[in-house]
Structure formats: C-alpha cells, structure tokens
Write a structure and sequence with these properties.
heterodimer; A: alpha+beta; Ubiquitin-like (UB roll); Aldehyde Oxidoreductase, domain 3; Aldehyde Oxidoreductase, domain 4; 6-stranded mixed sheet; B: 249 residues; 5-stranded antiparallel sheet
C-alpha cells in the first residue's frame, strides 16, 4: 500500500506492506540513523520524532505514520555542520559506541523544543525511552543541559579536567578517618587526582573529542547494517526448542520448496569441523567441542539449521517448515548437579576433543597453589568459610550480533561483522568454511557495544557458509530474544571462600573453591575461570593460597566473555567474604583490608600459576604502581563514609521502615594478558603532514581509536585531528588480538607509540636533511613542525612534500608491534550507598563512587565514561539483572523490561575519580581501565546492605524477595 | 508482524464499529499500538487503527473528568485536570517512547496486571463508556470490565470517566525505582471518607480489594515475586497507603 508522510521536511510517498514497522521502512529509504535494538522497541535505538514526539519506530506500523511528520537525526544538520545538541554530545563525551546517540539527540530535541530550560530530572525523563549500556547516562544528560544553555544563548565553558587535591601522603598513608565534606562539583566534572610523577604532555591526558564522534552523532552510515548490497539474502536460524536432544531426523524439503529460499543448511549438509568459538589467540584453548551444525542440541537456543532467502519473512517462514524429529534427553542446569553420578552426559560425541572428564561433564579441573593452605589453616588463629553463588547475566549490547558476508571480485570471502576480534575470526573461520586464511577478509566497522559478547566467532561461520553456497551476499542479524538465548552470557559460579587469619588481622591462608558453569560449550570456560582464581587470590597478600576449580557443562545458554571476565564473580565472593571476616574479627573493614592488600613491590604470586601468559613463562610479577590509598581516601570523602556508623543517618526517624548503609569493595584488575596479547600499528605520512594510523585494535565504543590517535599525536607533535584512524580490517591493518582483557591502551597503545617514534625518527632525518644539519638527533616535533635546537623549523607538510616528491623520495612510515611482558594492575576503591526497605526487601542504590588508579588516563573523558558506564552495568549485575529459566531450560525473561537494565531516570548518583599514578611500563604511564569498573559494585552494594540491616547476602542479584528472605532469616 | 493482511483507518466511531463487526474477518483494534505491535498473531488479521476517530479530549466537571480513549498517556501524565496521583501513575506506564503513543483506551483494553494507572483508575471509580453497533452506548464500571473482558467484544472504548476529588496515594515495590512494580497498592479516600484500595501484581488484571483484608489473595507467582512474597507485599503496601490516608487499618 501507499503512505504519504513528511520525512525531515520532505513530503514522501512510499510503498509498504501493512505489516512493516516504520523502522524497516525508514531504513529501507536510507535513514540509517534509525537502528535496530529490540523487536519489541525497548532499547529506543529505533526512536524517531513523530509530530515532534519521541516514539519507538520498531513498534509502530509504517501505515500508522501515514499523514504524519517524521524526523530523524539526518534532518537535524543537513550538510556538514552540527546542531547545537549534537555539538554538545560531542564536546562533553556523551558518545561511546554511538549506536543510540541519534535517538538520544532526538530525545533532546523533542524536550528542548518544548522546554528550553529543563531541570536535570526533566532531561532524565526525556531520555527514558533510550536505553544506554555504556555511559551510565551521566554525560548524555550533561550534554542536553549544555545544549539547552547554548540554545538559550548562554556561554558554556570548554571541557577541562578538574584537578582534585590528593588526600594521601606520598608515602602512601592517608588520613582515612577523614570526614571532611565531599567536594561540591557538578556531576559530570572530570575529577582527576594528579600525581607529581607524571610529566607534562600536549595531547595525552587531555579530554580530546572522539575521532569518530562526527559520524556517530550525525547517524551517518557506520555500523555493519548501514550498508546496502544488491541481491543480498537474509538468514534466519532454527534454534533448538529443547535443552538436550538428539536430532533423529531432519527434513528440509518443504523449506527448500518455498519460493525465495536459496539455501537450507544443517548437520547433514555442512562439513563436521571441530572448533572452539571463543575469540582467543592461537591455539584456541581446549575443548574443541563445537561444529557449525551438530546432530545434537545442548540448550534451548542451540543451532539446528539455517535458511537463506530473498526476504527475512521468507526465511522465517522457511525455518518453520523445517521438520525436525528430536529424541529428547534429560537435561541438567545446575553446575553442582551436573557433576553428580547419573547426570546426563552433555558431550558424548566420540570426536570431542580436550575435556577433562566428559562423562562427568567436567571440562576442566584447574588447580593452583602457593605455599600450603592446609598448614596455614592449621596455624591460623581463626578460620572463616562461606559459600556464595553468582548468577547468569547477559551483556546486552544495544546492537545485537550482526554479520554480512559476500564474495568479492576475486571470490574471496568478505565478512563485515560486529566483532571484537576480527583477526581471530579470520583464523578460526578458515577451517570451518574450508578456505585458506588468505582468501578471507574480516572488516570491523563501528560496533554498537560488545562488552565481551563479541569476543567470539558467533555467527560469522553461518553467513560464511551461506555466502559460499549461494554466491550471494548474506546478512544475519540476531533479534533481541536470540541475543539473550543464543549468543553468550556471564558464567554462573558456586564459590567457597575459606580464610585462615590471625587475631591481629594478618591473612595466613586463603582458599577459593569454584565450580564454574560453562553451559553447553567450553568456549571461554577455561580462561574465565582462571581469571576468577587469579583475581580472587591476587588482591591480598597471603603466604598460603589455593585455587581449586571445576568447570562443568550444563544445558544453559553458553557463558563466554563478559567485561570483567571472571573477576566480577571472584571479587563479589572475595570482597563479601573479607567484609565478613573483618566483622568476625571485630576489626574495621578498611583497616583489615589495608593491612593485607597488595602494595608496590609485593609479588603477585598466583599470576605465575594462573595468569595465562605469565603462567607460560612461570615468572612472578610485582606490583609496580598503586594508587589504592588515594583511591580509598577520595572515595571515603565522596561517599561520606563516616555516616555508616551514625545511627541518626542509618535509621531515618521519619521513615521507620528504611535502613541506610554504605559499603566498600577494593578492586584490582590486570592490563592485558602479559606475554600473549599483541597489538600492531602502522603509521604513514600524507602530503599535508597528516598521518594515517592503521591498527587491528577494535574500538567498540570505548574510545580506543581516539586514545590511540592521541598517543600517535603526542609523539608526532600534531593535534589529534591530523591523525586519520582506520581500524580494523584484516586486509588493511596490522594484526591485533582485539578488544579484550583490558589490553588496548596498554598493549596496542604501546605499539602505536613505537610506530610513532619510528616515524618521528624518519621525520627528524628528513628535517635534518632539509635544514642541512649533520645529525637529526636533537630535532623535536611539536606544533606540526620539526624543530632544530637553533630554533629553525620545517613544517610536517614541508617534510612530507619533500620526502614524497622532491628529493631522495621516501614514504615516511613505520609499523610496530608490542607484546607486554607484564600486566600492571589498576586498583580501585568502590563505594555504594543504599537504602533498604525492611518491610519489603527493596534495595534502592543512592550513590556509587569509584576512584580508580588507571595509571595516567590518556583521555580523562573516555576514561571517566568507562568508569561511569561500567558502574551502572555492574550495578545491573548486582541488583536487578538475571537470566531466569523454566524447568525445561527455556529463558522466561528474554526481553528488556523483564530482564531489567537501568534506565536514565533511576540511576543513582555516580562519581568517578581518576587517581593518577605513573606506570612506567605503560604508554605515557597508562594502565587499563575498561574492566575494573565491573568488579566492585556488587560486593559494595552487598556490604552496604549488611551495614544497613545486618543481612549478609551471598547470592546475586539483590532483588526484593531475596533481600526480604535474608532479612527474615536474620531476625 | 507479517500476519497483518489489511489496514483500516476509520474516521468515526461508527465506521470503526462497522469494520470491527464485519463478521468472519479477524480484526484487531489498534490505538497507540505499543502493545499490539509487539504481539505475534497466530492467524492473519486486519488492523483497525483508531487514530482518525477523534476521542482525544479531556473534559472536566467539578468532581469528575472524562478522558477520551485516544488521549495518550503522556497527556494524562501532565494534565492538571487529572488527580496528581493518576498523573504519576500514568508516568509509570513505560518510558516516554511508549507513553507518547499509548492511549488511555489501550491501557484499559490491555489491562496489564502490572498497570498502576489502571489500578489508580479503579480507586477513582473509573467508568468506561463503550460504543456498540447501532448507536448503542453503554457505561460500565471499570471494575466490571476488568472482570469480564468479553464486554469489549465488538465494542470500542470511547471514554474513561473518573472522579477527581479525594486524596490518592500509592506505594510500590520493584527491583529498581523505574521497574514495573512487582506489587503496587493504590488507595484513595473519597470526600465521604470511604477508602478504596487497588493492587497490581496479584491477579490477571489490577483489582480492587477490601481494605480490611488482603490475606485472601491468591497471586500468581513468577521470578520477580513468589505467591507468598506477593501476598506479603500486598499486605505491607496496603497497610502503608491506608496509614498515609490517616486511617488505622
């Protein structure tokens, strides 16, 4: 049928079907800023303005828009400029992946058109329709308030860091009883606690604008799906309805007969090649327990078959026509039950490789010892033991998995995919599709969030097989429901902590016994659980340590990598346990933890057993920098720590059913996998003295492209705008392991620095030639010029033209790579303030403060964004997110809403402090920051609930009924 | 949504009723569409989109207000003619993208068990005006309509009438502040002193319950709240709202 509507001021007559959503129609017409997030509209990535109101175009029929006025972000700034709202989003660092930024900009426009002077609350209300998994909403709110001021004609200040006076003495002791009032700073202030050890820099350390901000804020085509290909087919997967079953018979004849169907693939017509889907370095850790399509299914949501057809609707219809006869088998979901005698054997296939004891569903048994815990427990004055359970959650990137594959003119397979690991995908895909690596190219464009779920070769083999079989481009995009049940999740674990301690508080022995649930497949099961042991036993010094871990198969959807990678589980257990040990000893929790936490010079002995790379080399790393004392001091002041013992505050007299509390957790993470993670970068000069910077590192919205450009710019004496970034593309850019393990700044950053230093050397040589100097040794680069010691200079453009065109022609360029020998830990202090309703068990989190020592933040605004957004993601883990199943293993809440992620109008006050230390092994002093914000919120909230009510809860998340039950058990 | 095979946009209630009562065609009435457009239909349907029939007015009298069925929840949430508690409860019906499309009539027709707005309308003595074929208009109690959903068959909701006087309060428990509540208690003290109490999350729709006793409830349990816990919340939250109204339970 025909509809008439106005889009961005243009009257349009469009043809559509009555069942098409407005989003589908707008995207077909080229409005790429209107994006898919959920088939039921909750993410708001699909939001547009309809007659000036923000609406979700996914849950609106196109025909409903007949006669109406539609606005998308493409209409906001036609041409090359930016609307003041867009300008503000760019300036204040409100953009991370940018996938939903156009929707937020529209939300802002709708608000400001009606209300030029909104309150913060009104701004938060205006953003309720757009879910954000990245920023914690702090900077988007700030951007809208700033845009409002600009539109009212008010002056706004440029974004600068606010330097916060250090509280700790330089010998590392702080006045930790400080009860001075918190700093009165605006919410989005960039709180940087400087260190005198950090040298001055021009570009590094500055809140530079993201290099990809323009395309993101304007909604320009940038993501996997923002590309049109003629003749593209659409894929749909038939997923298993059973938690555990054998496929007895599969009949695809009706599906194949449906007009428009071009291919149907399943275990009978796809070669059986073993692999492990986790995106990791060669050789992929065992077990190799997957094939593209198997004759057995192991969870509800497992692959059965796939269809490629001319339209999505045809593919969906064909999937329903595939007849499958299953022999349903008993299933097991709990990691403890899976190891019991008589439990169903999940991997009984004869060609399965590398499980520890497949008959008992045990994939791995990991053990690590330092000293002798049994002797330690025997010698300790007191021994404490408790068992904790952490649950399963999903990463929920707003952009679900999507990949498009095609054969290029040379009939090489090209896959454009939303991945964190393009180089691993290329290597892992090759045997599955039966092609050599040289015939495969993986392109990673902008990614709408990953958080680890895209550290996986999840769907690339499917589109690869289909493109090869059909000879046509093939697109597969997971729905939100599919993203929940058929992608990857966080590992649930049962963890028993046992600690021997002397009466003075010194740790004598500490043991962590873990059963990790890796679901139906091994993928990241080994390494996630190793990191759990590493993180769980590294924060505190202790002469005797033991980690004993079984990783087991069950029939739940598959856990994999999720930001934090085993650390959030371990640190929940550790920090809850340490809180309770302190209480058991009658000690102040900070005093107890401080006595034991690792300090500069302390060995990280467990890393020699459990740190992947370090374990290979069997060397014991040592803490080289720590701002822990400063982090604690800043956090204590910001949260108002002294109130936790003030009865008037804890028991508000006007609200008798409310109890208040404050909790603390210390956090320690790593910076990359030492000895293993490698990044490469390549830089070349252009005629105008600008540079192309190419690397394989993958920016998922984290700002990696920007901080890597800042590192290059710092070395080359240019502003960031002179650095043109391209990443990542396996044909074009050097190798990089990809975005995981908090490695990009520390490892890829060093590769960029090395490449830039070599380019700088070549520039100096050329400048010396041009300036008739004997030696280039003393030439320095700054302000886009190469300077001789005598004050003469040539511009980089002159250097480029001279070297490319004029004399002894030479392309100034360099490639470098870096693998870190070490993984210096970032440290952080996480504080949480809560209210608990003792009548209902409802927990309301009022404040989260995290002070982080990430070394020198290369970019304080992207660093702060990592902390702010990470804390809110981590709060979801502790407070409200959970994957829930029925008795048959079917997820009952695979939809946003029932699966609850935080919305703009309900996030607590969040404050990030960036505590500088000078980590000499990192680029310009940097350590990592990406994952540590995920580590401390759950235990800090847990400890705050304990402070408020006395209830010590050992299971996540802190949903009202669980807390209510714990309160009743306490009484 | 692929099973939608037809779309109609009637320009009057009469035309909508005629389309709806065509006999053997399966028709679905669409108001804002925020709920209907997330539903997968098992059989082909034709959509009757009510956006052209008007019914977008809010009319006030001294002690009651009549809200047109096509008034959007976003309008309810900021119309001062509507009791403040009902404005707040309307604001809790999903994010702004939903409230900017969803309508009062749609909220009543859906009668989601977690709808705090519908619970609020119950305690404000909500009455629903239905149009039926042949020019028949019928006013029914919201409580009766929720009890017998078949009243809506072949009918169009045109108006919600609620009282506006008295004092209303609400208490809720959810996982987070903006979560759909597990249980909400809404109570109103009418000018004559009578107290009405409604609950969400304890039955298949929001329900009115006797002030004196919530122990007879038999709520369906789910992962957010077991039967026992919901029963506990019903008692605790009811006691709180009644206490806030200055009445000893």
């Amino acid at each position: 049928m025909k509809i008439n509507l106005t889009i961005n001021g243009d009257p349009r007559e469009l043809e559509c079907r009555p069942d098409e959503s407005l989003r589908q129609i707008l995207r077909r017409e080229g409005y790429f800023s209107v994006r898919f997030g959920a088939e039921t509209g909750e993410t708001g990535a699909d939001a547009i303005l309809l007659d000036g109101r923000l609406v979700a175009s996914e849950i609106m029929l196109g025909v409903q828009a007949d006669g109406h006025v539609v606005e998308t972000v493409e209409g906001l700034s036609p041409g090359r400029g930016l609307h003041p709202i867009q300008e503000a989003f760019v300036t204040v660092g409100a953009i991370q992946s940018g996938y939903s930024t156009p929707a937020m900009v529209l939300a802002a426009k709708a608000l400001l058109d009606e209300n030029p002077d909104p309150t913060e609350g009104e701004v938060r209300e205006a953003l309720t329709g757009v879910l954000d998994r990245e920023t914690g909403y702090l900077r988007p709110v700030e951007a809208i308030l700033r845009a409002a001021a600009v539109l009212r004609g008010e002056k706004v200040d440029p974004l600068e860091s606010t330097l916060v006076r250090p509280l700790a003495d330089f010998d590392g002791t702080a006045d930790l009883d400080s009860d001075e009032p918190p700093l009165d700073l605006p919410p989005a202030a960039l709180r940087v606690v400087p260190s005198p050890e950090v040298p001055d820099t021009h570009v590094v350390g500055k809140p530079e604008v993201k290099v990809d901000a323009l395309k993101l804020v304007k909604g320009n085509p940038a993501f996997v799906d923002d590309m049109e290909m003629r003749g593209m087919l659409h894929a749909k997967v038939l997923w298993s309805p059973h938690a555990h079953a054998r496929i007895v018979r599969i009949d695809d004849s009706k599906a194949r007969a449906l007009p428009g169907v071009r291919a149907v693939l399943h275990h009978e017509n796809v070669p059986r090649v073993r692999y492990a889907s986790g995106g990791q370095s060669y050789p992929n850790p065992l077990p190799h327990d997957q094939v593209s399509f198997d004759n057995k299914v192991r969870y509800v949501g497992d692959r059965v078959a796939v269809v490629a057809a001319e339209t999505i609707e045809t593919a969906e219809a064909a999937v329903r026509l595939i007849e499958v006869e299953y022999e349903v088998l008993p299933a097991v979901f709990d990691e403890n039950e899976a190891m019991e005698d008589g439990a169903p054997v999940i991997h009984d296939e004869p060609d399965m490789e590398g499980a520890y004891d497949a008959v008992r569903n045990i994939v791995h048994h990991i053990e690590a010892d330092v000293g002798d815990v049994e002797t330690g427990f025997a010698e300790a004055d007191r021994v404490f033991e408790q068992t904790l359970r952490v649950h399963q959650v999903q990463q929920v990137p707003i952009e679900p998995h999507i990949a498009i594959a095609w054969l290029d003119g040379d009939e090489r397979l090209v896959v454009r995919t939303s991945t964190q690991v393009p180089f691993h995908v290329r290597r892992m895909l090759a045997p599955l599709v039966g092609m050599p690596v040289r015939k495969i190219r993986i392109v990673k464009p902008r990614i709408g969030g990953g958080f680890g779920v895209k550290q996986e070769m999840l769907i690339e083999d499917i589109v690869g097989h289909l493109a090869l079989v059909t000879g046509r481009p093939v697109r597969l995009e997971l729905t939100r429901h599919e993203e929940f049940v058929s992608s990857r999740t966080r590992h649930p674990q049962t963890i028993t902590m046992k600690t021997g301690v002397n009466n003075d508080g010194m740790l004598v022995a500490q043991q962590m016994t873990t059963i990790g649930n890796t679901g139906a497949y091994g993928t990241h099961g080994l390494t996630v659980q190793m990191v759990s042991g590493l993180r769980g036993l590294s924060s505190y010094n202790c002469p005797n340590k033991r980690f004993d871990c079984h990783v087991v198969y069950t029939n739940i959807p598959v856990p994999g990598a999720y930001r934090g990678y085993g650390a959030p589980q371990a640190l929940f257990a550790l920090e809850a346990h340490m809180e309770d040990v302190a209480a058991g000893l009658g000690m102040d929790v900070l005093e107890f933890k401080r006595m034991n936490w690792t300090k500069v010079g302390d060995p990280l002995d467990v890393a020699a057993e459990l740190g992947e790379g370090a374990a290979e080399m069997k060397f014991i790393p040592v803490v080289t920098s720590s701002g822990m004392e400063e982090c604690v001091a800043q956090g204590q002041r910001a949260i108002g720590w002294h109130r936790r013992t003030d009865p008037e505050w804890r028991f508000p007299s006007d609200r008798p059913h409310i109890r208040r509390g404050i909790g603390f957790a210390m956090c320690m993470h790593g910076s990359a996998i030492s000895g293993l993670d490698m990044g490469g970068a390549s830089i070349k000069i252009n005629d105008d003295g600008s540079f192309n910077l190419l690397f394989g590192a993958t920016d998922l919205g984290t700002g990696a492209d920007t901080i890597l450009a800042q590192i290059a710019a710092e070395v080359l004496g240019t502003p960031v705008e002179d650095i043109v970034v391209y990443a990542a593309d396996t044909d074009m850019t050097p190798f990089d392991v990809g975005a995981y393990a908090s490695s990009t700044t520390y490892v890829s950053g060093m590769a960029v620095k090395k490449a830039a230093e070599e380019v700088a050397r070549q520039i100096s040589e050329r400048a010396a030639l041009m300036l008739d100097m004997g030696s280039p040794g003393d030439i320095s680069l700054r302000d886009r010029r190469a300077w001789a010691p005598d004050g003469r200079s040539v511009s980089l453009a002159e250097v480029a033209l001279h070297s490319l065109h004029q004399d002894q022609q030479h392309q100034i360029m360099a490639t470098a790579s870096y693998v870190a020998p070490d993984s210096p830990p970032p440290y952080a202090a996480q504080f949480a303030e809560v209210e608990v309703d003792i009548g209902t068990g409802q927990v309301t989190v009022l404040s989260l403060v995290m002070a982080v020592d990430c070394g020198v933040p290369i970019n304080p605004v992207t660093s702060a964004g990592q902390v702010e957004g990470g804390m809110i993601q981590a709060l979801g883990y502790g407070h409200c997110e959970e994957m829930v199943y029925d008795d048959g293993g079917r997820m009952v809440n695979a939809r946003l809403g029932p699966y609850k992620i935080y919305r703009s109008d309900e996030v607590p006050r969040i404050e990030a402090y960036l505590v500088q230390t000078m980590e000499k092994s990192g680029p310009f002093g940097a350590k990592a920051i990406a994952e540590i914000p995920k580590d401390g919120v759950a235990p800090a909230v847990r400890n705050a609930i304990a402070n408020a009510t006395g209830a010590r809860i050992n299971n996540l998340p802190f949903t009202p009924e669980r807390v209510w039950a714990a309160l009743n058990a306490t009484e | 949504m692929e099973t939608i095979v037809g779309y109609h946009r009637p320009e009057s209630v009469e035309e909508a009723l005629a389309l709806l009562n065509r006999g053997n065609l399966r028709s679905v009435v669409l108001a804002g569409g925020t709920w209907i457009n997330t539903v997968e239909f098992p059989q082909p349907v034709e959509i009757i989109d009510l956006q052209g029939i008007g019914l977008g007015e809010i009319r006030t009298d001294e002690t009651f207000v009549e809200i047109g069925a096509m008034v959007r929840l976003a309008q309810v949430a900021r119309d001062t003619a509507i009791p403040q508690i009902l404005q707040e409860l309307a604001r809790r019906e999903g994010p702004n993208t939903v409230r900017n499309m969803a309508t009062v009539g749609g909220a009543i027709a859906a009668a989601h068990p977690e709808s705090e707005f519908v619970a609020g309308c119950l305690v404000y003595q909500g009455r629903v005006i239905l149009s039926r074929p042949g020019g028949v208009t019928e006013t029914v109690g919201l409580v009766d309509l929720l009890d017998d959903h078949s009243m809506l068959d072949g009918s169009i909701i045109t108006t919600l009438r609620i009282e506006t006087d008295g004092l209303g309060v609400a208490e809720r428990t959810g996982r987070t502040p903006s979560d759909s509540s597990i249980v909400t208690a809404v109570a109103r003290r009418a000018p004559d002193g009578r107290i009405d109490l409604a609950l969400t999350g304890v039955a298949s729709t929001p329900i009115l319950v006797p002030v004196s006793d919530t122990r007879g409830l038999d709520p369906p349990g789910d992962f957010r709240g077991s039967r026992e816990y919901r029963r506990h919340l019903a008692g605790t939250l009811s006691a709180r709202v009644i206490e806030q109204l200055g009445v000893r339970p």
